[in-house]
Amino acid sequence: MKKTLILALIAAFVAVLTLSCCGKMMEKAIEEAIEEEGGEDVDIDIGGMMGGKPPKNFPKDLIYPGAKSTGFVSGTTEEGSGGWGALESSASLSRIVKYYEGLESKGWTNEGSFEASTEEGESYMLTLSKGDFSAVVTISEDSESGKTIIGFMYGEE
Questions:
Q1: At what angle do helices 23-38 and 3-19 cross, to 10 degrees?
Q2: Hey, is 141 helix, strand or coil?
Q3: Which of 54, 59, 74, 104 has its CA 20 to 30 A from that of 47?
Q4: Higher confidence at residue 47 or residue 134?
Q5: Are 67 and 152 in contact (CB under 8 A)?
Q6: How far apart are CA 91 and CA 66, in angstroms?
Q7: Pairwise CA distance, residues 32 & 39, whole Å
Q8: What is the CA radius of gyration of the chain?
Q9: Whole-angstrom distance between the N-terminal and C-terminal Cα of the chain?
Q10: 90-125 b/e (C-beta count within 10 Å ≥ 16 → b)
């Protein structure tokens, strides 16, 4: 990702963590600050960390069926867009991993994967791409809630 997009995403993340209640006013302030620094048009969309929806350009294939959105943050520059987000599901980690691995039948390319096991549970990570869109998908067990968490870090040029 380009420097400006990374700055936009960092600014959006800080905004969500510190002032998520300020909504559109905060988005506008972040956009103006980044545009002053980088000289290009930037659009920030803070979906909120509690129940925010995926942005409109987020591929529907990447939303695990029946999963609940727990938050998405996205940013757009002239060079592309990107962001991060999370879903939670009551489905097992292995079932969700099979779903994402199966996306190759829908035109996605699995660029690589990684599996880990810790005292806190199992986790899995894979990188998927389709056209100009790419995403790192992390899938992990939340031992406290009993849910499976699906995280995304994504970008599109």
A1: 150
A2: strand
A3: 104
A4: 134
A5: no
A6: 9
A7: 10
A8: 16
A9: 8
A10: ebebeebbebbeebeeeebeeeeeeeeeeeeebbbb
Distances (CA, A) of 102 to 21, 95, 106: 38, 11, 8
Structure-block tokens of residue 92: 């097992």
d(CA 121, CA 93) in angstroms, rounded, equals: 10
3-state SS, residue 146: coil
Q: Which CATH class is domain 3-156?
A: alpha beta
Which pLDDT does position 131 carry in this prediction?
93
Beta bridge partners of residue 63, listed in sequence order: none
Look at residue 117 and give its three-state secondary structure. Answer: strand
Q: Give the pLDDT band of residue 82 (cuts 50, 70, 90).
A: confident
Domain ranges of the chain: 3-156
Q: Transcribe 53-105 into DSSP letters.
A: PPPTTS-GGGS-TTPEEEEEEEEEETTEEEEEEEEEESS-HHHHHHHHHGGGG
Distance, C-alpha 21 to centroid of its chain: 20
Instruction: Kindly report whether the global pTM for this prediction surpasses the value 0.85.
Output: no
Q: What is the pLDDT of residue 38?
A: 65
Q: For residues 28, 38, 46 and 49, what is the CA-based torsion angle, rounded to 10 degrees?
A: -130
Retrieve residue 55's tokens: 């942005």
